[in-house]
Write a structure and sequence with these properties.
This protein has a single domain, classed as 3-Layer(aba) Sandwich (Rossmann fold). It is globular and about 45 Å long. The two termini are 28 Å apart. It is built from eight helices and eight strands; from the N terminus they run E-H-H-E-E-H-E-H-H-E-H-E-H-E-E-H.
Amino acid sequence: MGLSGGDRTVMRARQISSIRLGFHRRVAVEPIAPRASGRQRRAKASREVTVFLDRDGVLVRNRSDYVKGWDEVEIVPGAFAALARLRSAGARILVATNQSAVGRGIVRRETVDDIHDRLARIARAHGGPIDGFLVCPHRPDDGCQCRKPKPGLLMRAQRERGLDLSAAFMVGDQASDALAALAAGCTPILLGDGAAEVSGSLRARTLGDAVDLILHATGVDS
């Protein structure tokens, strides 16, 4: 389920993608910051945190008939601003999503990848680049190890990126997100009031509120 509440409006992806972002062709590389001292680098590493995000219900609005193409993507307002806050605090951002519509033959994997490419470009333009997308394409009855609530996607990220999952958070809107996080040793944060209670989970109304919790827990100001 997505976040409920009449106080939330949703912007269609086509509206976001049509905004002129003001890129300049001559600005191709960001200026190189002064080299940090060894102490500064160690301090940064000690507080570096990974935040896993579910996709549907967190970044984009859920659909009962699945998101089948970019024209059906509806961006949750404030989502990319929340990602920018995480990035400015030094967090890694990974999206971990169940996409059983692929296994059901409803959506092609290439279409899912295209949606993610577009989301990544928008996130980067808003100052909150996403480090990667972890996708389970299987149906619930396939018996895979990557479909949440199993922790396979998160464990894969640990193997491939050398992450400390004990210092990671998982933000989602379903009990399966929280259960996957707990199984992997992460801290789960459930959004809204639609998901069942999961012992050991934190609660937040919006992604922005979840970012507040993360920054407070890690002692990093936004």
